[in-house]
Amino acid sequence: MNMDRRSVLGLGGAIAAGVALAPGLHLIAAPAPSSEAASPDSPPAKRWAMLIDTTRCAENCTACTTACRAENNVPLFGDPDRDIHWIRKVELRDQKHRQPPVSLPVLCNHCENPPCVHVCPTEASFIRHDGLVLVDKHRCIGCRYCMIACPYKARSLVFHKTRLPEGGNPKVPIRAVGVVEKCTFCAHRLDDGQKPACVEACAKADKNAMIFGDINDPNSEISQRLLKEKTQTIRADLGLKPQVYYKGI
Closest by alpha carbon to 142, among 130, 159, 164? Predict the structure, then answer.
């Protein structure tokens, strides 16, 4: 997939009156988080984030996408319009050809102010205590408001009935037709003290383009990298405070 660099970064102009999401539905400003303030004496909650170094991401490498499918039982049906992608690779091009193309992994950005959560009529989309944006599949009615609201095209509606593949991961429930799903930062792995499958696969492929960790921990690798290196987020102009950062775009 080819994408224009200015459009991805939100450099095409300021938002004057709101971004149209669907007929009658607009994103004007991200509402403030509704969670209660923590006690001054309590330790800060974890806040998971990812840093992707595009200078180390090879165009022909699919380690992250392959690992994601295997870990989360995400099949390909050969239907381009209805296949599910929790993480995908896009090619980012500069229209004026001042910079070479960039290979860019794109996934759910687990925003601090996620529009997908704000538009969900059944509260199926929600923010977990550690900042992960997840979907309660028992509440999802497949209305797709969240898919329209997401500026990262990171959500998919399940069109095809699936079953647990041979050798599949039993920790990840099989999807039900008619609900929406997305990247979870491999929440089941985080709960077991592991990193997301895409991050581990990237390291095993000797790319080390994906850094993952708790940005509320000032001593974590990702906190140190974000402090010292120049990074950007996609569509920062929307005020969603995405938690996937990019170096080299």
Answer: 159
State the DSSP H helix or E strand holding residue 5, giving kind and residue range, or none if neither: helix 5-9
- Identify any residues that bridge with 51 across adjacent strands, giving them in sequence order: 211, 245
pLDDT (tens digit per residue) in 13-30: 333 333 344 444 444 444
**52 pairs with which residues across the strands?**
210, 246
Tokens 């609201």 belong to: 149
With beta carbons less than 8 A apart as the criterion, state whether 22 and 146 touch.
no
C-beta separation of 233 from 242 below 8 A: yes
Report the distance separating Cα 190 and Cα 184, nearest Å.
10
Phi, psi of 127, deg, nearest 5 = -105, 125
Whether residue 47 contacts residue 131, with contact meaning beta carbons closer than 8 Å, is answered with: yes
- Phi and psi, residue 68, nearest 5°: -65, -45
What kind of fold does domain 2-13+57-247 have according to CATH? Alpha-Beta Plaits (3.30.70)
**CA–CA gap between residue 198 and residue 176 (Å, rounded):** 24
Is pTM, for the whole model, over 0.85?
A: no
pLDDT in tens, 42-84: 556 899 999 999 999 988 999 999 999 999 999 888 888 899 9
Q: What angle do CA 11, 16, 19 make, to 5 degrees?
A: 75
Q: Are 5 and 95 in contact (CB under 8 A)?
A: yes
Residue spans of the domains in the chain: they are: 2-13+57-247
Identify the burial level of 209 via C-beta atoms within 10 angstroms of its C-beta, where 0-12 means exposed, 13-18 middle and 19 or more buried: buried
